[in-house]
Amino acid sequence: MPPEKNLKVILSKLKYPDDALVMKQITDQLIQVKTRMGLIKRKVVVMSGKGGVGKSLVTVNLALALARLGHKVGILDVDLNGPCVPKMLGLKGATMEITSEGAVPPTGPLGIKVASMEFFLKEGSPLRWKGPMDLSPVWLGMLEMSVLREFLADILWGSLDYLLADLPPGAAADKPPVIVGFLPELDGAVIVTIPSEISTEVVRKSVLYARDLGIPVLGLVENMSGYRCPDCNAISPLFEGDAKPLCDELFLPLLGRIPFDRALGQSADQGKPLLSESEPSVKIFTELARQVQSRVDATIHFSIDAKETSP
User: Fold this and answer.
1) How crowded is the C-beta side of 56, counted as CA atoms within 13 Å?
2) Average pLDDT rounded to a whole number, residues 223-237
3) 106: left (phi over 0), alpha (psi -120 to 50) or beta
4) pLDDT tier, 161 (very low <50, low <70, confident <90, very high otherwise)
5) CA 67 to chain centre
C-alpha cells in the first residue's frame, strides 16, 4: 500500500475528519510539551542498545538517589509494551488523577512522580498494541508517538529538577529520535551496559547513534559489575569483560560500577526500594547520582559558553 494511502487508513481509524485537524492537534500538543518541559530544569534519557542489562532498575535507583540529594524528580516510563517502573516503586495498581488542567502523575517514594503506560492497563491485559491486521507497523509507531506526546504534554509534572526518561529495551531505532524531537533541550543520555563483550559491542553502536542524533552522552554505567555476596559483601566477577576500555575508546567517563545485589533485586520485585544509606547499593547509586549531576551541569555550562562565544 502506498504511504499516502496508508496514512489515510490510519487517519480514518483514528476518526479524524482530515489531515489538517491531525496536524493542529499535534501542533497544540507540541506547544503544550514546550510549556510543561519549561518547568523542568534537567532532562536525561537512560538507554541501552542491549536488552536485559537492568536499565529500568538503574533508572529507578538513580531517581531515588537524586531525590535523596534533595532534588525533585520525575520518571517517564517510555517502555509502552512492558512497563515496570511502577512495580519497582510500589505503585502497581495506582492510577492517574484526571483534572481540567491535566493528568496528575502518581507519586512514589521520596516524592518521585511517575508517568507510565502501566497506569492505563487492566490487570492481566496483554502488553502489545492491538489493531486491525491490515495496518502496517507505521500505525503502531504513530500510536506510540501519540502516547509519548500526551505523556509529556498532558501530564502535570509541575516544577522538577530532573526528569528521567527510561527508554525501551534495546532503545528501538524510532524512540531516541522521537524523544529528541519532543525534548529539544535534552541534557544528555546515560548509557547502561553489563561487562560482557556482546553487550559492550552493541552499546558502542548506541553511543554512536545517540551522538549522531545530537544527544550529549553523559557516560556509561556498568551494571552487574560482579556479584555481591549477601553474607560477607565480597564481590565476585560475573562476566569476563570490562566497560572501561569502551569508555576510553569513546572518550566517555565510566559513571559507576554496580554489582549485582540480591537485596536490590528483591526490593524491585517487592516494590520496596532500598532507601537506607547503610545499604552498599544505595551508597553506590548516591555516588552515581553525583556523577550524573556533575556531568549534566558541565554539559549545560559548556552549551551556554558555546552560545556566548559563537559569532
Assistant:
1) 24
2) 83
3) beta
4) very high
5) 16
If you ran DSSP here, which 8-state letter would residue 52 be given? T
Q: Provide the H-helix boundaries in 47-159.
A: 55-68, 85-88, 137-154
Question: Between 83 and 291, whose confidence is greater?
Answer: 291
Question: Using the 8-state DSSP alphabet, how is residue 92 labeled?
Answer: T
pTM for the whole thing? 0.84
Beta bridge partners of 97: 104
What is the overall mean pLDDT for the chain? Answer: 80
Residues 39 and 159: their CA atoms lie apart, in Å, by 5
Going from N- to C-terminal start, the domains of the chain cover 3-309
Closest CA to 189 of 281, 253, 142: 253
How many CB atoms are located within 10 Å of the residue 250 CB?
16
Residue 227's φ and ψ, nearest 5 degrees, are -125, 125
Distance CA 48, CA 54 (A): 9
CB 45 within 8 A of CB 176: yes
pLDDT value at 223 more than 90: yes
Torsion of CA 78, 83, 86, 88, to 10 degrees: -110
Q: Which CATH architecture has domain 3-309?
A: 3-Layer(aba) Sandwich (3.40)
CA distance 267 to 274: 6
311 Cβ neighbours under 8 A, 6+ residues apart: none
- Per DSSP, 106 falls in state P
Quick check: 199 and 193 in contact, CB under 8 A? yes
Residue 229 carries which DSSP code? -
Give the pLDDT of residue 140. Answer: 54
Cell of 265: 533485586
Comparing C-alpha atoms, which of 29, 83, 55, 89 is closest to residue 272?
Answer: 89
Rounded to 5°, angle at Cα 44 from 251 and 307: 70
pLDDT at 286 over 80: yes
